[in-house]
Each structure stands twice: as structure tokens, then as C-alpha cells.
């Protein structure tokens, strides 16, 4: 992939892992993040990933604004910001975008790839569903709690299958096992049904996923939410079958010993991603005529908590 010029926008926990894997294959990979002081930290020690993944990589090309990487003409851009930053990022990418550029959403949430398609056309849009759990341990240090290989990546148009396959191979060669799939939205739904359901419950109750599923009152809320989101997914064309819920609950009970990232957002009094998680399920429910009262309640509770500190 000598013709590939990759940029990663957003060097938080997820973006740092992506960047480390890509840098291990191509030291000229471009990193972009506006966080004050990040350049100095990266120049001093590069990126360090520990836990289930292990990287120590230097960084050559870092910019604090997207427009500054224009001269390098990146033709594949991974966006690993918080979901609520995506509209602004896409607006800024208009100054960098060129014909043939692919933009890969690696976000949590539903519908992020559709925002890319709206801004640049479906032929530019890719989506990646990440199957690892990470946490920042310092400005450029990340610990990987688990990695259920592989990640999944796909395009919105079948003509991009070949590029997706090459990109998946490039990531896999860097140690971040990735499979290119024909219907990426299916894999997004499979993961996000779990994420969308448990994020709000954990955030409101300040419990780990495991604790929320073991406590009967929150377990009851979770099961109600699961039924609603499965009905919404089916209305959107993705019937995950009768066994999905059993498998999902079994998976969550096994890996859910940590708190969801939305708990961290609430604890840190920062903006949450509720609009692309539970809020998006409610939005899709209204579009398809599927009632989502439990989801609406949980999403609105998160918004109420968020509003209380953001207004201050």
C-alpha cells in the first residue's frame, strides 16, 4: 500500500491505538488533535500502548489542526473523535478532502458513517467496528483491557470492497487484526445494541456492566431496552435472530467488569455521546414507528444529568 497516505484525527484512547498500529507499519502516518500540550508529550515519548496490545512508537507528523495536514494530501482519514465532534470535523475536512479520499468512522454509536456519506458522498464513507476496550493512563499512554479479535471494517458501496480489504490487511499487519466485511452496518448493530443499552444504565446508576446485569432492577431495565432496540434494528432491516440476546448477555456478563465510558464522562462532567447511542435508537424508533419508552427514559435521564453540570 505504498500509495496510501493515512491520517488519524483524534488521539484519545481509541485513536492512539489506531495510530500506534498504523505507525508501526508506516512511520509517516499523520496524527491530528487540538489537545494543548499533546505535541510536546508525543515528541518526548511517542505513543505507548500496554495490556492486550503492546506498542511503543515514535511520532513524526503531528498537527493540532486538520487544515495543517493539507500539504501531505492524506487519502485515507480515520476519525476517532467523540461522536459529537464529528460534524465539525467533517466541515474542517472539506479543506483537505480530494477526489478518491476515504474517510473511516471508528466511533461509538449509530449512523456516523451516514454523516460522512452526506458530506462527501457514499463512495467516500467507511465504518470500522472496534472490538477492544481501552483507557487513557496518561496523555499518550493507553491500557488495553481486552481485544476480541477481529475488528470489522467495511464500505457503504460495494465498489470499495477492494480498498477495504487492503486497508484491513494493512491494519492486521500492524497487529490490529481487522476483517473487511460486506455489510458493515450489520456488525455495527451487533455491537451497538449492547453499547447503546448498557451505556445509559451504567451512567445513571454508576455501576459496572456486570453489576448492572446482576442487580435485578437494572437487569429488568436492560432486558426491556434490549427488546426495544432489537425491534428497531429489525425495522431497519437487521433481524439478529432469537439467539442474539442470549449471546449478547453472555458476552457482557463475561467482559463487563469495567464501567462504560459514559460513566467516565458523567464523573468528569464532560459531554456524553448519548445522541448517537440511546438517543439514536429513539430517533430510529420514531422513523420506523417502533415504540421505545424504556430507551427514551434512559436517554433523557442521561441528558438531564449532563445538562445539570454543562449549564454550570
Question: Key features?
Answer:
alpha/beta; 12 strands; eight-stranded mixed beta sheet; Rossmann fold; four-stranded mixed beta sheet; 12 helices; 312 residues
Largest sheet: 8 strands, mixed
Number of helices: 12
What gyration radius follows from the Cα positions, in whole Å? 19 Å
List the strand order in the largest sheet.
Answer: 5-2-1-6-7-8-11-12
CATH level-four homologous superfamily name of the largest domain: NAD(P)-binding Rossmann-like Domain
Beta-strand percentage range: 15-25%
| Apparent shape | globular
CATH class category of the largest domain:
Alpha Beta
The beta-strand count equals 12
User: Span between N and C termini?
Assistant: 49 Å
Order of helix and strand elements from N to C terminus: EHEHEEEEHEHEEEEHEHHHHHHH
> Mean pLDDT across all residues, rounded?
96
The chain-level structural class is alpha/beta
Helix content: 40-55%
Number of structural units classed as domains: 2
CATH architecture verdict of the largest domain: 3-Layer(aba) Sandwich
Which oligomeric form is depicted? single chain
CATH fold description of the largest domain: Rossmann fold
Q: Identify low-pLDDT runs.
A: none
Amino acid at each position: 500500500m505504498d500509495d496510501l497516505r493515512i491520517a488519524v484525527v483524534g488521539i484519545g484512547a481509541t485513536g492512539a491505538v489506531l495510530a500506534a498500529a498504523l505507525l508501526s507499519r508506516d512511520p509517516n502516518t499523520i496524527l491530528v488533535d487540538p489537545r494543548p500540550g499533546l505535541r510536546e508529550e508525543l515528541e518526548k515519548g511517542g505513543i505507548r500502548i500496554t495490556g492486550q496490545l503492546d506498542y511503543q512508537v515514535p511520532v513524526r507528523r503531528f498537527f493540532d489542526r486538520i487544515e495543517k495536514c493539507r500539504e501531505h494530501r492524506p487519502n485515507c482519514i480515520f476519525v476517532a473523535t467523540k461522536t459529537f465532534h464529528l460534524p465539525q470535523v467533517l466541515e474542517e475536512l472539506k479543506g483537505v478532502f480530494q477526489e478518491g479520499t476515504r474517510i473511516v468512522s471508528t466511533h461509538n454509536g449509530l449512523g456516523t458513517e451516514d454523516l460522512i456519506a452526506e458530506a462527501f458522498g457514499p463512495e467516500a464513507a467507511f465504518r470500522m467496528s472496534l472490538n477492544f476496550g481501552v483507557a487513557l493512563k496518561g496523555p499518550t499512554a493507553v491500557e488495553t483491557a481486552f481485544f476480541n479479535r477481529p475488528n470489522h471494517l467495511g464500505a457503504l458501496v460495494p465498489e470499495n470492497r477492494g480498498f477495504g480489504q487492503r486497508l484491513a490487511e494493512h491494519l492486521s499487519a500492524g497487529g490490529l487484526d481487522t476483517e473487511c466485511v460486506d455489510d458493515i452496518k450489520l456488525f455495527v448493530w451487533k455491537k451497538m445494541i449492547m453499547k447503546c443499552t448498557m451505556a445509559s444504565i451504567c451512567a445513571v446508576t454508576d455501576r459496572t456492566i456486570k453489576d448492572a446485569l446482576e442487580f435485578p432492577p437494572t437487569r429488568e431495565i436492560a432486558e426491556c431496552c434490549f427488546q426495544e432496540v432489537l425491534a428497531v434494528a429489525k425495522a431497519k432491516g437487521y433481524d439478529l435472530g432469537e439467539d442474539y440476546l442470549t449471546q449478547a448477555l453472555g458476552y457482557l456478563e463475561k467482559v463487563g467488569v469495567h464501567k462504560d465510558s459514559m460513566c467516565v464522562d458523567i464523573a468528569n462532567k464532560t459531554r456524553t455521546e448519548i445522541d448517537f447511542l440511546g438517543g439514536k435508537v429513539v430517533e430510529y424508533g420514531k422513523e420506523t414507528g417502533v415504540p421505545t419508552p424504556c430507551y427514551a427514559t434512559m436517554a433523557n435521564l442521561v441528558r438531564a444529568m449532563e445538562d445539570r453540570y454543562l449549564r454550570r
